[in-house]
């Protein structure tokens, strides 16, 4: 053998790879596999679809538009008046709204995914890096510095345009208004709250001092360190409403989580009855043709109500079944080639 | 640098002169005192392209000259300059990667060249200066230096041989490194010059450097004190080429005539013209479509953006105000930058990586050809050779095969079969016990069992011996020569010691030996042969009238001991017959023609006795012609033609050239694969025709349409008229009367369709090609014939034929296969040139794109390798366009929902890595390993080759299919996710997802779908495929976790932080991903399954083909008997 090898030094290697003879699995899509496969996929999809559909149907949703551009709308007066205008939205629940209930606000025709808007933020600032307080990222322009060239913190369009309507929900029991307690915790991503966003380290024990030499965003009524004076863990960049706002929405019609109703008598849900929602109407949307709404919803394992997924699964599942039937008929006519030959 | 430029300047000056003058040893000559020594270039060989200093700029410049690279550079620059949605890194990084890899590869190659150059340039040589031997580096040699070379060294530059250590003033060289011919060639010193080179005072006048290795014309003027200047002619036999090696000679001395880049070797070292494959043309066409798509997308978006912005409140809502600078920008400039931004956003639709992948696929894929052990030939110890990897897929697209006959269809292994002396036939038989070793069998009809006279026999054999002797030892094409071991030993008994590059010659000398005349050898001027009576005869060789393909004969003039001057001539029948006395011709012509029909190569032998006066006239003529500096060849030809006249025909020889192994099977397979085989040969029609029959190119049923000088002269009318008449007649037969079914696979019992073979010869062909009217008729006839035989072709005509077919309607892909120097032109002309590593040197191999040891390997090369390569690269190209279309389409659609703000849907990392990491490896593995049909089946069923004919997988139909698939999937990805995001609260915590989650869902679906689509198309799953396909998916998941799991300090924005993980925590996201993947792949599955019921299952179909292989192949003569009766049945009914 050795001698033979020497003789043929030029001979190409006789390995499976060089000779393109690697052992290979050669699958073939044939009717015998595809038809049962389609049936299986169809069944599975229909199963999932039914589950999704039922789940989605059981989710209760209450949506109310409060833009106020129609004259009969309760917030109509607020559309032209000064900030901190109050208006009241009344609604009735005919049956128990099962808890935990999630309170969303929704905006439409609002382009949070606009490119210039989306980049107009300084993540270094928001992670508490004081160096960027003095010199915010250039992407923040025109909300980088104010007219006196004092840096804005938090800079940029997103922060500047933070949603600032506030809501209070009252349950009217026997003509008396009982405030439904809102839970403002856990509405933002855990990682945003705990890792990505950091307040600057305190100076002299106060957050305010850390913001020295900066100015609040132009549209904000109060600076970042006063967003929630009641709770220091919900203040500054760690304010949950701020965090929710800073996660830009994917589409121009979006909703964002405002509060959860998890406490007290309402932990099990909102009982049937009359409710009034007191809105502090600050946020202008009519100038760009936008709309505002509030959404009360409970969620399931699949999230909020969305019929699309269930229907899509059902349609595809039945399509698979129909296809397998068609194929079966076609093959019955032409005979299975596997047996035929 | 300056010196080089100066050199160039001088070289430019020099070009104006027809010849250069060299002073041997730099001595001043009395005749040209005032002559200024001209400058020649130094002896440095520079094959490297770059130096350390100019590497970067020059290499970058060359790389950016490629359109694709330039395009990506522009995109990159736009990203740097204009405010664009994606950072310059996304396109800069891949471009940088591609450029760097290419630069490293080219740099390394150039470093190797530098090393090789240095090795040559610094090689120590001995130069004689003023009688002293000085050692120098090779690069310091100047033109005019006298250089000494010892045995087994290579010549450092082109030298004129002045002195040799051998007594007979010759030296042996081998030019293996120049043209691959390993035999020894004899070169001669300039005759009659001083032995003492120091006292030699001479100038050499020779032509300017030119690349032809076998041509050299020069003149040497020798000045001697008080004597008249002596002039010697110099020819290629005096010139030692740089790169050749001195053999069997102790040392030589020569004067440098061409140095450095002006040597013939350097002039021959030029890249061949690039051949581009048809696939590349398809790629470019698709590229243009996608470029249009890109531009129109950008235009649509820009337009819509400004339409949308014109609505009140949309242009600058309060929450998203512009900077002052933006407001101040002119509207049109804004539009333009917006357009550029959209271009940048969508530019991924044309990926950089496709070029890299295609290049890699071609480069790596070509290894499989050279690795294939089926191509290994134990005889020559070599396998296949791939000279270019650009044409792999072209091997699967061949429609016309042009093949040489000698050495390609036949073995070029000549064996002396018969001879005919004075009209009597002599067939040599090994088993014959007769003493003299020859016998007479069935002689001419009237003279059975008779022999020619002994004298005639002797004369004939002597002629054979002498004519041949000259060829082996000396000047016939300067090939051939004694093997060095036997050079002086007169090893005549050892037959194997005859070495000649033209095997006919060996066959003839061996043939003569069988009949008792043995050639013993020759020294410079005399030749010795041993006759039948074991006497040694000696002849003085006076002149050799070289063989050339135009005259197709050669002669020698010898002087016997008795003082007789004899001219022996041998050559092709047609070139001899008009030059001999006509009465002998008829007797011998019959033999020649019969031998030719048997497939033998025939030569006729004639002789002539020259009187002294006659000889002197000839001698003077020859000498004069040989000294001519210009038109030497033409002048020689005139003299040759004068001499070779009025000869007496003494006989003819027949040499058999056996068919190559499996030549017939190979040809049959090629025809079964739908290729048209044309045989182009310089040989006689009869010989070629019989070879065609033997190769089954023509069959019994084939009607032959002949268009040769013979058929033209039948009517005795004008050739032109007759030609037109014949062409019309054949055209009617072959084109008009034949139903147009040629592309359809001929069914087994449709052999009632008449098959045509077409025969044309060189003379007629030149008539045809000169008139365009005939040309188109001729072409149509040819295209309808199953095979075409062109005989009596000059090399250039071969190329003409190939070019004609190449440029005909539909521009079919042509392939030329040949083994000799005469095939080089057609090998270079055809789309694919195949060289056979045969016996006629290496010229064909050097100029070919692929070289194989044997003809039979062509079958596997085309049917298996070619087919697979084509399918692979076609799929690769389509897949690349498809995957980038469904990559970018969602990004385009997203613009409608983000205010046309060029917001990217995917994160920059995903944009960059999609083509580089996530989806590149599976397709590369596929395009290297896929065997949709296994090799054995491909080889067994030549008809499978037709399925991919005419670029079937890269036509607009399949392209449209892939594009539709891409559009469908792109729409699905985007709108599936869009509807899911109608409620962005997708987690059971009620929290909402943002835009980056949206993009990540789309991207995940995309990566999985695109990879699984490839997985579905893969028919051949080796472990590599498994590894790469599942590996890339796993890699994508891991990378996403990793990318989103860390706060990256170098990123200005942490947009992807935990996006992927939180996406996976949502059940809805999972469900939508699964749903979209399944839905995207469904149509493809359906298509695959629904396509099958029309016929049997693809594989079964192929199996059933193979079981009935004989009958399926339309040209099989070995079809089963039953089939034949079937096929004959309809006839009696009709």
Strand count, sense and closure of the main sheet of chain B?
10 strands, antiparallel
Alpha-beta classification of chain B: alpha+beta
Q: Choose one word for the global shape of chain A.
A: extended
Low-confidence blocks of residues of chain B:
6-16, 430-449, 470-496, 741-751, 1093-1134
- Terminus-to-terminus distance of chain B: 85 Å
Describe the overall structure.
The complex is a heterodimer of chains A (341) and B (1134). Chain A is built from eleven helices and ten strands. Chain A is an alpha+beta fold. In chain A, β5 (166-173) and β6 (176-179) form a beta hairpin. In chain A, 38% of the residues are buried. Mean pLDDT of chain A is 88; it is low at 1-7. With 1134 residues, chain B is an alpha+beta fold. Chain B is built from 40 helices and 34 strands. In chain B, a hairpin with a 7-residue loop joins β9 (218-222) and β10 (230-234). The chains are: A alpha+beta (341), B alpha+beta (1134). At the A-B interface, α2, α3, α7, β7 and α10 of A face α11, α32, α33, α34 and α36 of B.
Tags for this entry?
heterodimer; A: 341 residues; four-stranded antiparallel sheet; disordered N terminus; B: 1134 residues; 46% helix; 17% strand; disordered C terminus
């Amino acid at each position: 053998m050795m001698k033979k090898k020497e003789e043929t030094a030029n001979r190409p290697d006789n390995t499976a790879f060089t000779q393109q003879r690697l052992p290979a699995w050669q699958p073939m899509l044939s009717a015998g596999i595809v038809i049962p496969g389609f049936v299986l996929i169809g069944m599975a999809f229909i199963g999932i679809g039914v589950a999704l559909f039922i789940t989605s149907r059981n989710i209760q949703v209450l949506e109310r538009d409060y833009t106020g551009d129609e004259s009969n709308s309760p917030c109509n007066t607020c559309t032209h008046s000064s900030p901190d205008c109050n208006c009241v939205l009344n609604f009735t629940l005919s049956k128990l709204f099962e808890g935990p209930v999630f309170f969303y606000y929704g905006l439409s025709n609002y382009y949070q995914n606009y490119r210039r808007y989306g980049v107009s933020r300084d993540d270094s600032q928001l992670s508490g890096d004081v160096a960027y307080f003095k010199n915010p990222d250039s992407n923040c322009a025109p909300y980088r510095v104010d007219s006196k060239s004092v840096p804005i913190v938090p800079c940029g369009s997103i922060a500047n345009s933070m949603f600032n309507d506030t809501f209070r929900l009252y349950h009217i029991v026997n003509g008396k208004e009982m405030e439904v307690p809102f839970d403002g915790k856990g509405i933002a991503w855990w990682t945003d709250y705990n890792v990505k966003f950091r307040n600057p380290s305190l100076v002299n024990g106060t957050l305010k001092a850390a913001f020295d030499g900066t100015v609040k965003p132009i549209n904000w009524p109060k600076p970042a360190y006063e967003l929630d004076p009641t709770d220091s863990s919900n203040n500054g960049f760690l304010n949950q409403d701020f965090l929710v706002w800073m996660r830009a929405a994917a589409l121009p019609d979006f909703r964002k989580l405002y509060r959860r109703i998890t406490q007290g008598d309402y932990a099990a849900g909102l009982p049937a009855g009359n409710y009034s929602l007191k809105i502090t109407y600050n946020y202008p949307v009519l100038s760009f043709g936008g709309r505002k709404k509030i959404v009360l919803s409970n969620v399931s394992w699949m999230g909020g109500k969305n019929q699309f997924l269930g229907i899509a699964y059902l349609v595809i599942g039945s399509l698979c079944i129909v296809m397998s039937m068609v194929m079966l008929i076609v093959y019955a006519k032409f005979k299975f080639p596997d047996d035929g030959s | 640098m300056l010196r080089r430029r100066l050199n160039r300047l001088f070289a430019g000056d020099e070009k104006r002169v027809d010849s250069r003058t060299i002073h041997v040893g730099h001595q001043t000559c009395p005749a040209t005192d005032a002559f200024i020594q001209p400058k020649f270039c130094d002896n440095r060989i520079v094959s490297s392209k770059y130096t350390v200093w100019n590497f970067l700029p020059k290499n970058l410049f060359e790389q950016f000259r490629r359109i694709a690279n330039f395009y990506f550079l522009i995109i990159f620059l736009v990203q740097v300059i204009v405010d664009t949605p994606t950072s310059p890194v996304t396109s800069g990084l891949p471009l940088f990667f591609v450029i760097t890899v290419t630069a490293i590869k080219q740099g390394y190659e150039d470093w190797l060249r530098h090393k090789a150059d240095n090795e040559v340039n610094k090689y120590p040589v001995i130069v004689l200066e003023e009688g002293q031997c000085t050692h120098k580096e090779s690069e310091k040699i100047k033109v005019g230096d006298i250089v000494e070379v010892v045995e087994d060294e290579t010549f450092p530059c082109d030298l004129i041989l002045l002195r040799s250590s051998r007594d007979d003033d010759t030296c042996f060289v081998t030019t293996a490194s120049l043209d691959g011919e390993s035999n020894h060639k004899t070169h001669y010193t300039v005759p009659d010059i001083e032995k003492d080179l120091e006292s030699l005072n001479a100038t050499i006048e020779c032509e300017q450097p030119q690349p032809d290795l076998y041509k050299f014309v020069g003149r040497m003027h020798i000045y001697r004190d008080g004597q008249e200047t002596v002039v010697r002619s110099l020819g290629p036999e005096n010139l030692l080429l740089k790169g050749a090696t001195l053999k069997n000679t102790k040392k030589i001395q020569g004067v440098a005539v061409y140095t450095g880049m002006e040597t013939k070797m350097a002039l021959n070292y030029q890249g061949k013209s690039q051949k581009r494959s048809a696939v590349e043309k398809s790629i470019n066409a698709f590229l243009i479509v996608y470029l249009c798509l890109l531009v129109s997308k950008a235009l649509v978006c820009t337009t819509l953006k400004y339409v949308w912005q014109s609505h009140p409140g949309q242009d600058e809502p309060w929450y998203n105000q512009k900077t002052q600078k933006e407001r101040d920008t002119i509207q049109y400039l804004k539009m333009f930058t917006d357009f550029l931004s959209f271009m940048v956003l969508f530019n991924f639709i044309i990926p950089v990586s496709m070029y890299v992948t295609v290049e890699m696929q071609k480069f790596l894929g070509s290894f499989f050809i050279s690795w294939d052990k089926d191509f290994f030939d134990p005889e020559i110890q070599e396998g296949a050779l791939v000279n270019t990897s650009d044409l792999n897929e072209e091997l699967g697209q061949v429609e016309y095969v042009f093949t040489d006959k000698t050495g390609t269809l036949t073995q070029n292994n000549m064996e002396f079969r018969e001879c005919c002396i004075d009209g009597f036939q002599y067939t040599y038989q090994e088993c014959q016990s007769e003493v003299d070793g020859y016998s007479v069998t069935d002689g001419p009809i009237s003279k059975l069992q008779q022999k020619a006279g002994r004298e005639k026999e002797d004369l004939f054999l002597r002629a054979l011996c002498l004519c041949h002797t000259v060829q082996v030892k000396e000047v016939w094409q300067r090939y051939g020569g004694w093997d060095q071991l036997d050079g002086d030993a007169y090893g005549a008994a050892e037959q194997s010691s005859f070495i000649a590059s033209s095997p006919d010659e060996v066959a003839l000398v061996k043939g003569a030996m069988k009949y008792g005349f043995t050639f013993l050898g020759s020294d410079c001027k005399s030749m010795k042969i041993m006759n039948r009576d074991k006497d040694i005869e000696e002849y003085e060789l006076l002149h050799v009238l070289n063989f050339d393909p135009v005259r197709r004969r050669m002669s020698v003039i010898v002087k016997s001991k008795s003082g007789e001057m004899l001219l022996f001539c041998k050559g092709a029948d047609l070139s001899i017959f008009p030059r001999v006395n006509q009465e002998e011709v008829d007797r011998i012509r019959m033999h020649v023609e019969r031998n030719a029909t048997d497939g033998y190569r025939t030569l006729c032998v004639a002789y002539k006795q020259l009187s002294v006066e006659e000889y002197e006239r000839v001698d003077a003529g020859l000498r004069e012609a040989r000294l001519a500096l210009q038109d030497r060849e033409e002048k020689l030809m005139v003299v040759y033609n004068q001499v070779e006249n009025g000869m007496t025909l003494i006989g003819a020889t027949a040499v058999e050239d056996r068919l190559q192994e499996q030549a017939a099977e190979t040809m049959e397979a090629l025809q079964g694969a739908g290729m048209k085989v044309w045989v182009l040969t310089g040989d006689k029609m009869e010989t070629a025709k019989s070879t065609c029959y033997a190769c089954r190119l023509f069959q019994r049923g084939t009607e032959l349409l002949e268009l040769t000088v013979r058929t033209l002269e039948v009517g005795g009318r004008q050739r032109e008229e007759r030609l037109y008449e014949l062409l019309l007649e054949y055209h009617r037969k072959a084109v008009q009367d034949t139903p147009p079914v040629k592309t359809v696979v001929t069914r087994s019992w449709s052999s009632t369709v008449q098959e045509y073979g077409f025969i044309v010869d060189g003379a007629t062909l030149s008539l045809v090609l000169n008139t365009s009217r005939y040309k188109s008729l001729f072409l149509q006839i040819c295209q309808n014939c199953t095979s075409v035989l062109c005989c009596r072709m000059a090399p250039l005509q071969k190329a003409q034929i190939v070019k004609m077919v190449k440029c005909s309607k539909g521009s079919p892909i042509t392939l030329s296969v040949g083994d000799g120097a005469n095939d080089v032109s057609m090998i270079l002309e055809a789309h694919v040139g195949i060289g056979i590593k045969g016996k006629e040197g290496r010229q064909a191999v050097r100029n070919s794109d692929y070289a194989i040891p044997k003809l039979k390997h062509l079958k596997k090369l085309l049917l298996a390798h070619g087919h697979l390569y084509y399918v692979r690269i076609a799929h690769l190209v389509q897949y690349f366009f498809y995957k980038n279309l469904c990559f970018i389409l969602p990004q385009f659609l997203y613009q409608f929902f983000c205010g046309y703000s060029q917001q990217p849907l995917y994160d920059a990392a995903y944009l960059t890595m999609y083509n580089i990491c996530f989806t590149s490896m599976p397709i590369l593995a596929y395009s290297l390993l896929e065997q949709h049909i296994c090799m054995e089946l491909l080889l067994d069923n030549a008809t499978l080759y037709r399925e991919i004919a005419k670029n079937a997988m890269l036509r607009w139909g399949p392209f449209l299919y892939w594009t539709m698939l891409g559009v469908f999937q792109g729409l699905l990805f985007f709108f599936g996710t869009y509807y899911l995001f109608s409620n962005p609260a997708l987690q059971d915590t009620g929290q909402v997802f943002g835009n980056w989650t949206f993009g990540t869902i789309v991207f995940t679906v995309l990566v999985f779908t695109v990879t699984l689509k490839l997985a579905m198309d893969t028919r051949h799953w080796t472990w590599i495929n498994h590894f790469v396909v599942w590996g890339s998916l796993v890699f994508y998941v891991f990378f996403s976790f990793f990318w989103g799991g860390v706060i990256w300090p170098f990123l200005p924005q942490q947009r992807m932080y935990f996006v992927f993980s939180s996406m996976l925590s949502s059940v809805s996201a999972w469900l939508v991903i699964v749903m979209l993947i399944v839905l995207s792949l469904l149509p493809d599955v359906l298509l695959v399954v629904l396509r099958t019921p029309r016929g049997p299952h693809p594989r079964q179909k192929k199996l059933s083909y193979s079981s009935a292989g004989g009958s399926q192949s339309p040209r099989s003569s070995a079809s089963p008997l039953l089939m034949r009766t079937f096929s004959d049945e309809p006839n009696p009914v009709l």
